[in-house]
Amino acid sequence: MNILLVYPQYPGTFWSFKHALKFISKKASFPPLGLLTVASMLPKSWHLKLIDMNVEPLKDKDISHADFVFLSAMSIQSESAIDVIRRCGELNTKIVAGGPLFTSSHESFEGIDHFVLDEAEITLPVFLNDLEQGHPKKIYRANGIWADVTTTPLPDWKLVKLNQYSSMNIQYSRGCPYDCDFCDITVLYGRKPRTKTSVQVISELDNLLSSGWKGPVFFVDDNFIGNKRKLKNEILPAIQDWMERNKSPFWFNTEASINLADDDDLMRQMVSCGFESVFIGIESPLEESLTECNKIQNKNRDLIESVKKIQTSGMDVQGGFIVGFDSDPVSIFDKLTDFIQNSGIVTAMVGLLNAPKGTKLYNRLIGEGRLNTAFTGDNTDFTMNFIPKMNPDVLMDGYRKILKTIYSPEHYYSRIFQFLKNYDPVKKKTFHINLRYIQALCLSIIRLGMMGKERIYFWKLFFWTLYRKPRLFSLAILYTIYGYHFRKVSGI
What we know:
By secondary structure, the protein is of the alpha/beta class. About 45% of the residues lie in helices and about 15% in strands.
């Protein structure tokens, strides 16, 4: 059996880092971890080939040669996924579809032969058994059963070219204990975090290292600290021991909730293991908006102080923000801009509120008759899939004003300076050097230091960091490149 695993193309978005990747001659940020894991669940006798369309083009001959195309995607990849479905139909190749996009809205897609939905550990074996028996069904669902992730196999890294990616990825847990109204994580993976064992995590690290990877590794968990006790007592000690034995070949980043700031010991352990940055959904500086979206973990605290505690511990904070809540006043645009500037969060993603299918927000808006278009999966593309309470023109103008301000060289570089002045990581290799980084440095000097409109800010940061914070020099240059990407994707 010839199987072609296909991962559709991402559009150019905030998190695609499309323009930044060119500085290091990489094609994509991360490999398709889900498909690589599914590949390890397929019969060993099958011949597998993976095409990540973010790295290489999908050719008709690859489709024609396959008995089945296994297609997985997220909502933001829907446009590319639709094109793949069309091409497979024209070439009469059957499609097996799964992943978040199809799990949330399979009824919206025609031309799919088999939907293997929810978590593959549960539904894929049933499909494979039916296929072997000669009577596969159209739709396979888990019917409310969550997978035991301690049975999840190692990803098949042999199927991808590691040197085409800027980072590798690992999943330790699924699910989140919080239930924010606009988030579909609990819809897809539940509220009780399900975790892998320390043996599994170490095996994943060994697997990556033996595949030849050295560099950044992203723990893709939607809330890495969902089970603090196990993380502190089992997982982080095992990672730290592994890193010490292997001379720290990786450095890590992940996603977590703001209550990370409440646990000094947890932050210390993460930093000791090599965690350098963490993405946190802050959403709004307004208590009313946090209440509206049930972001209870962010309420009744000084959010800027929490951010600075994490930064002081030795981790960079990347922040997610949202405008468009019903509770948002017109003053939200200036208040959010001030918050971002005062927090020193360099990588600040500000998006418009959207309602993914199945979320509490989605169901509420259906009841109110306010849904109007399909969810694109990209909350930074100036679209909303519902009618906001604020005047739409005022909302869009205010949103553009935020982006124009925070990504402008003056404000963006101001945040870099503010962060680096107070950032003093202990016992960390923050000066990451290899040929790709040297290439990025040279290109940044040409594109940003000589040709860019941020020239004066670039050189001030360049020399200040070189003389005052030399260990953070590579980080400073990375931020300048990120800023270039943010300005390009936001059109300012």
